[in-house]
Structures are given as structure tokens and as C-alpha cells.
Design goal:
alpha+beta, Glutaredoxin, four-stranded mixed β-sheet, 51% helix, 11% strand
């Protein structure tokens, strides 16, 4: 039975940054039973801080909630941008060039949120960060990130996320072949997500066992 979990995120989001330990543990724990993927869900003005002071307030709150020994940096805050395309474009472009895991997006998040890098708004800088983390050629990565196809793709995945009628990133979408679905929007603690996955895996296993004994349901 196919079971998948999709992580809708924005590379520059602090809450997505704090969710990474849970995402990594889910991938480790369920690697042989669940298909994992992530997609970009771009932050819009409604979800972005209105000032650097406000951003720092959010960073203090999220850092405290996650018992962090460090505070995220707000150096890269850019008040005139309605969205932050550069890092998200580069993260998505890296997948086209063979980096299918979390390497590039995590490097970009770290560069922006821990180091205050201009990768948040400059594709050239973001491509340099991504290339250094992945071993990709910087020029090729930057060229791909600037292609219309990449922007179209992340806008499409953002629309997918909007159609879920949720408001928080990350959003974890869990689907099974038997039609079960669970959505965690803004929930980043491991325990509730793992418990739901365990339950859905158990149900899917039961369906598979029933099908092995009785076959498909009668048409009438």
C-alpha cells in the first residue's frame, strides 16, 4: 500500500527551519514504509513580518518554544519584498540538477536564518550557497533557477498548498492508497505526526491483508 507525506514549506520560514528535526526523524523512522517529498509553498505578505522588529519578536518566540540555545538572525530582512523568491527558486532548481534530498534547501535556510545571508533576495548569492552545499556548478544552478519553468513550478505548488485551506507552513500532508488523508498545518512536534502515521500504516496493512484473502470488493 502506497503511503506518502509531503512537506509544504518556504525555505526562508523560521517555523519550517525549526521543523527540520521532526522531518529528519520521520524520514529515518519510516524510510522503508513511506514516500517523502517536499514542495514550495511561498510566503505571501499576510504571512511575512511587517518590520524587522516584528520579525525578531517572532524569532524570539519560536526559538523559545523550541528551547533553542541560539536566536535566528534578522540581518537579511527586506521590507520591500512581497515574497522571497531567490532561495526558493534555487532550492527547486537543484532538484532538477539531481539533488533530490534536503541538502540545498537546508543550506539556504541556514545561510539566511543563522548567518543573515543575502541569499534571501539575491539569486546569484543563493546559487553560490546551493552550489557549495551540493557540488553543483554554480552557473548551471543559477541559470536553472532563473528559468520560467522553475518559477511556474513553485507557484503551482503554492496553489496546491492554498487549496488545502490551511494557513501555516510547514504543512505535512499524509495520503494513503486507501483514501485516508491527514493534514498537520503548523504542527512540528514528532509525536502526533508519528502516531498518525503508525495508525494509517496499520490501516493500510489491514486493507492489504484483507485484499490478499478476499480480493476486490464485488461490483454489486
Amino acid at each position: 500500500m502506497r503511503i506518502s507525506i509531503t512537506n509544504y514549506l518556504d525555505v526562508i520560514s523560521s517555523w519550517c527551519f525549526w521543523s527540520q528535526p521532526t522531518w529528519a526523524e520521520l524520514k529515518r523512522r519510516y524510510a522503508d514504509r513511506v514516500e517523502f517529498d517536499w514542495k514550495i509553498a511561498l510566503m505571501d505578505p499576510a504571512g511575512l513580518p511587517k518590520s524587522r522588529q516584528q520579525e525578531e519578536w517572532y524569532y524570539r518566540r519560536s526559538g523559545l518554544m523550541n528551547r533553542s540555545p541560539f536566536m535566528l538572525r534578522s540581518d537579511s530582512y527586506e521590507p520591500v519584498l512581497p515574497e522571497y523568491l531567490a532561495a526558493n527558486l534555487v532550492a527547486e532548481a537543484a532538484r532538477d540538477l539531481g539533488i533530490k534530498d534536503d541538502t540545498v534547501r537546508l543550506a539556504l535556510s541556514h545561510s539566511i536564518l543563522r548567518e543573515g545571508s543575502k541569499a534571501i533576495r539575491d539569486i546569484e548569492v543563493a546559487a553560490e550557497v546551493g552550489a557549495h552545499a551540493s557540488g553543483l556548478d554554480k552557473a548551471k544552478l543559477e541559470e536553472r533557477a532563473r528559468s520560467p519553468e522553475i518559477e511556474k513550478r513553485i507557484r503551482q505548488s503554492t496553489v496546491e498548498w492554498q487549496e488545502l485551506k490551511v494557513s501555516q507552513r510547514p504543512t505535512f500532508l499524509i495520503d494513503t492508497e486507501i483514501g485516508d488523508r491527514a493534514i498537520f498545518s503548523g504542527v512540528i512536534k514528532l509525536e502526533p505526526i508519528a502516531a498518525t502515521l503508525d495508525s494509517m500504516i496499520d490501516d493500510a496493512t489491514g486493507y492489504a491483508a484483507h485484499a490478499a484473502h478476499f480480493g476486490a470488493a464485488p461490483a454489486e
